[in-house]
Design a protein that fits this description.
Blueprint (H helix, E strand, L loop, with lengths): L1 E10 L4 E3 L19 H10 L8 E4 L4 E7 L1 E15 L2 E4 L2 E6 L3 E17 L1 E3 L26 E6 L7 E2 L11 E6 L8 H9 L2 E7 L3 E5 L14 E2 L4 E4 L5 E4 L6 E2 L3 E5 L1 H8 L6 E6 L2 H28 L2
Parallel strand pairs: 12-20
Antiparallel strand pairs: 1-4, 1-10, 2-3, 3-8, 4-8, 5-6, 5-7, 5-8, 7-11, 9-10, 12-19, 13-14, 13-20, 14-17, 15-18, 16-17, 16-19
């Protein structure tokens, strides 16, 4: 391996180092963090020969511009439909290229998507916290947020066989229809309110970050007093505040909460949900717990097959 040194010329909000997440610590009050779109994150890493869980850079719609000061690095960009510029090459995301000393690598928002992933072939030199490089946005613990003037060292592994486009699977596109299992506090809402929740179209609001996304639409006011004790919550919980506004909790969500959860979004739909933009429509579709299990298993098989195809394809590129 050799080293490549990068200097950050510009970084929008929420541009951070992430790995697959901080596992098995929520019981101690530690959020899992990790990428907002886990499928695209894994594809970026596998696309350059890394383990799917290796640290990479999550880029928000604010974009990222870095200058390669020394060395060279093979990289992959996946996620939303962003615009990628490196050296004299202009392309879209879902691509693998090489950036060399004296060249600029820029990732800017395109026509769709809210998050892109930048993985380098090799290893990013980064800090860890509690065994993970994932950055918790509110505290800054983990690999950290990138900002102008930040330098980044990558222990690189160059390989011509990695260069080329990465197929963007249908499952990586934004998803506006979210399958949910009702509960665990659907009893806090009237039958009419639950019917409204399942039959009404909501919209993504501007109140959207790594912790969660507030939705705009018909108010879903609970029918009882909000005096329930705080209890564990998970990624995908649809939490209803006293004003009746639904919030879908995401990667940096808190570990406990005292607002009722009208439903829980299937984990397999959250990657696509995270790629929606403000004002995009959102609808909820109720499924049974058994249907949720069956569809989750099917999606896991689909993702595993897709990542395996990237490994096979990478070995045949010239």
């Amino acid at each position: 391996m050799s080293d490549a040194l990068f200097s950050v010329d510009f970084a929008g909000p929420h541009v951070t180092i992430q790995d697959a997440g901080r596992k098995r610590l929520m019981r101690y009050g530690v959020p899992a963090s990790g990428p907002m779109d886990r499928t695209s994150f894994a594809a970026a890493n596998v696309g350059v020969g890394n383990p799917a869980c290796a640290p990479a850079i999550e880029v928000s719609r604010g974009g990222l511009v870095m200058d390669c000061i020394s060395g060279a690095a093979t990289f992959a960009v996946t996620g939303g439909g962003f615009v990628v510029e490196h050296g004299s090459t202009l392309t879209g995301s879902w691509t693998v290229g090489t950036v060399r000393a004296g060249e600029r690598l820029a990732i800017r928002p395109g026509h769709w998507g809210s998050w892109a992933y930048l993985a380098f072939a090799g290893q990013i030199d980064t800090k860890t916290w509690l065994g993970s490089a994932s950055t918790h946005a509110l505290s800054g613990f983990g690999g950290g947020k990138l900002s102008k003037g930040h330098t980044l060292t990558v222990h690189t592994r160059l390989g011509k066989s990695y260069l080329g486009p990465i197929p963007c699977p249908i499952i990586a596109r934004p998803r506006s229809e979210l399958r949910v299992v009702l509960g665990p506090q659907e009893r806090f809402f009237s039958k009419q309110t639950i019917e409204t929740f399942l039959s009404t179209s909501f919209r993504m609001s501007n109140a959207y970050d790594r912790m969660g996304a507030r939705l705009q639409g018909t108010s879903l006011v609970p029918s009882v007093a909000l005096d329930m004790p705080s209890e564990p919550i998970i990624r995908g919980s649809v939490q209803i505040a006293g004003d009746g506004v639904p919030t879908v909790l995401l990667a940096d969500h808190q570990t406990t909460g005292g607002y009722p959860k009208i439903a829980t979004v299937l984990d397999i739909d959250l990657d696509g949900f995270s790629q929606l933009r403000p004002r995009d429509p959102v609808r909820f579709i109720s499924v049974t717990p058994q249907q949720a299990i069956e569809r989750t298993r099917l999606r896991a098989e689909t993702i595993a097959g897709y990542l395996a195809s990237l490994v096979r394809r990478r070995s045949t590129l010239s």
